[in-house]
Amino acid sequence: MSEPCQQPPGAFAPIIDRARCEGKADCVVICPYEVFELDILPPEDRKALPFGAKVKGFVHGWKQSFAVRADACRACGLCVKACPEKAITLQRAQD
Ligand code: SF4
């Protein structure tokens, strides 16, 4: 069951904390608008992570979630609630 969506597409976008995401894909499954896909975090984006996040990333093969269709987000909040790592926040899109 999904919650009613509250915003027009693109008014908000999900932001994924790279130091928290472990690629568990709960957001991929729950988003009604297919905003997320799993992919591998590029090497240049791994450098800025704190040590603990680098260890976690290595253990998980650097698999993370990416908001590839962020402009389809309707800010329903399901992904924020579903993420077991509390890695997702919603941010108002810039004009
Ligand atoms: S808040 Fe999350 S689950 Fe809801 S539409 Fe946006 S990305 Fe998808």
Task: Spell out the blueprint of helices and strands.
Layout: E1 12-16, H1 26-30, E2 36-40, H2 43-46, H3 51-59, E3 63-67, H4 78-82, E4 88-92
Antiparallel strand pairs: 1-4, 2-3
The structure holds iron/sulfur cluster (SF4).
SS content category: alpha+beta
CATH architecture annotation: 2-Layer Sandwich
Could you tell me the mean pLDDT?
93
CATH class: Alpha Beta
Q: What share of residues are in beta strands?
A: 15-25%
Largest sheet composition:
2 strands, antiparallel
What's the number of domains? 1
CATH topology: Alpha-Beta Plaits
Distance between the termini: 32 Å
The run of helices and strands is EHEHHEHE
Notes on the structure:
The longest helix has 9 residues, at 51-59. The chain has helices spanning 26-30, 43-46, 51-59, 78-82, and strands at 12-16, 36-40, 63-67, 88-92. The protein is of the alpha+beta class. The radius of gyration is 13 Å and the shape is elongated. The strands form 2 sheets. The protein has a two-stranded antiparallel ribbon with strand order 1-4. It has a two-stranded antiparallel ribbon with strand order 2-3. It contains 4 helices and 4 strands, in the order E-H-E-H-H-E-H-E. 24% of the residues lie in helices and 21% in strands. The protein has a single domain (12-92), classed as Alpha-Beta Plaits. The chain binds iron/sulfur cluster. The site of iron/sulfur cluster has 13 residues, from helix 4.
Give a quick rundown of the structure.
This protein is an alpha+beta fold and 95 residues long.
